[in-house]
């Protein structure tokens, strides 16, 4: 078995540097990065091509979809999806993956800066970008970044699962809601405990550490530009620095479900009940 991996210092930098297409032709990437950041009221990712406004009907369709992707992915309509497919054709998946990068890395930056942790992951915020025109963003996201996050083991599995299920509900990912991680179940997770996630502030089963993690997840999902000081202080008080970094990356990893939700590809694994899976030491999802 391969040795466990973890998120490397330069992995966000690599994601930021992805600018598919020939040099100078990155209008779509530039547009998506501006729209997502504007929707979140956060600083945008660097863009090789600065784009202020859509300059065609096709770009307007992409901008509308990106805005809804960032604001509330669960409300993207079939009509919006159809219009995007007509504009992008087979390229739709790659562009939506770019939306995920443009949408969530600014949230991670806001979280890590507010917590004052993980500065090594933010070198891209002050260094020149060496643009990558050849690498497929979906390959880096799904085959490198997400498994690397999944392999991190500082945070206990129950907290990771609570945060995952909260994100699943907030984004209304049917697939994510239909599965349960086995390490968390072995460590004390249960349907009784998970049922309290919806109204976690009133829960008598969830402890204050779990509630702090869930508040932080909600903040990154809904109000990343207005992180509440008390919530940040509570995370710092109840989690070590390495746990807080992992918690932040976990929220981003879970939010990759926005790609499937936005494209209508989030069908549940089972029609009734839930299915168990293992997030193995390599960060891979393994169903029995």
TrEMBL record:
SUPFAM superfamilies cross-referenced by the UniProt entry? AhpD-like
InterPro entries named among the record's database cross-references? AhpD-like
**Which Gene3D superfamilies does UniProt cross-reference here?**
AhpD-like (1.20.1290.10)
What is this protein's name? Carboxymuconolactone decarboxylase family protein
């Amino acid at each position: 078995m391969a040795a466990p991996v973890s998120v490397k210092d330069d992995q966000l930098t690599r994601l930021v540097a992805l600018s598919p297409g020939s040099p100078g032709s990155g209008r779509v990437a530039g547009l998506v990065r501006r729209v997502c950041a504007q929707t979140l009221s956060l600083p945008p990712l660097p863009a090789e091509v600065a784009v202020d406004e859509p300059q065609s009907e096709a770009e307007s369709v992409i901008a509308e979809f990106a805005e809804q992707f960032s604001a509330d992915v669960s409300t993207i309509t079939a009509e919006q999806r159809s219009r995007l497919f007509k504009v992008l054709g087979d390229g739709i998946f790659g562009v939506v993956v770019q939306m995920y990068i443009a949408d969530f890395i600014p949230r991670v930056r806001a979280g890590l800066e507010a917590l004052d942790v993980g500065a090594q992951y933010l070198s891209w915020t002050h260094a020149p970008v060496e643009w990558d025109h050849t690498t497929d963003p979906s390959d880096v996201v799904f085959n490198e970044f997400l498994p690397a996050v999944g392999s991190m083991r500082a945070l206990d599995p129950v907290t990771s699962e609570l945060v995952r299920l909260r994100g699943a509900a907030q984004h209304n990912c049917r697939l994510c809601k239909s599965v349960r991680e086995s390490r968390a179940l072995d460590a004390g997770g249960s349907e009784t405990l998970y049922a309290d996630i919806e109204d976690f502030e009133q829960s008598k089963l969830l402890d204050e550490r779990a509630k702090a993690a869930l508040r932080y997840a909600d903040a990154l999902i809904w109000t990343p530009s207005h992180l509440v000081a008390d919530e940040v202080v509570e995370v710092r008080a109840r989690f070590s620095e390495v746990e807080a970094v992992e918690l932040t990356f976990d929220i981003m990893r879970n939010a990759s479900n926005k790609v499937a939700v936005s494209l209508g590809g989030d069908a549940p694994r089972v029609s009734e009940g839930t299915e168990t899976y293992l997030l193995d030491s390599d960060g891979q999802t393994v169903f029995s």
